[in-house]
Amino acid sequence: MSTRFTDRDEPLSYPLTGSVLVRCPRCTGQAAATHSRVSCTGCGYAKVDGHPGASIGQVEFRAHGRCRNCGRSVTQWRKRWRRAEPRTLPVSCPGCRTATELPVSSTWSRSVPAVPRYRGLELWLQTPCKGETLWAYHERHLDYLERYVAAGLREQVPNRNSSLASRLPAWIKSAKNRDDVLRALSRMRASLPAGDTSAGLA
What we know:
The chain has helices at residues 139-150, 170-173, 178-190; strands at residues 4-7, 20-23, 30-33, 37-39, 46-48, 59-66, 73-80, 88-92, 99-108, 117-118, 121-122, 125-129, 132-136, 153-156. With 202 residues, the chain is α+β, with helices and mostly antiparallel strands.
């Protein structure tokens, strides 16, 4: 294992360049999910979904406008893990209680999610560690985390606080937790079938 890790400012969405390993909603075995499809070779489950999948972080929707009854300015915020962006949302006026369909805008949260899910499905690669949940999207994401945690020297090129590595939780970055995190990553690797070919980090 390399003792040097170079952070090249990979974005938060970097692990989602391939299929993600999830728990099949039918048989609970390992399935593969992309931005628009979920498939399980174990039980044959397959579902095509026209909505794009969730990225790292929540989507925050803001519905804003005026009540159609009293003209009062109304704003409502909602958060979702799945990125199924509506064009309008029904918002109840706090004054007259009239429901009005208001236009929606959305923004991505830049925080890494605490809930280990993708498109609403439980991730296959997850395990308890130091009172938290350690997770990965697929084998190559696991490789990335192992390289980062095992490295004795971590470099940022360029030095910006917006990369996937820079947004990892402090407990994963902590040197005192290195051995525990590496053992947890090893447990997740043991749950992978032989010859796993899930696409992911290059």
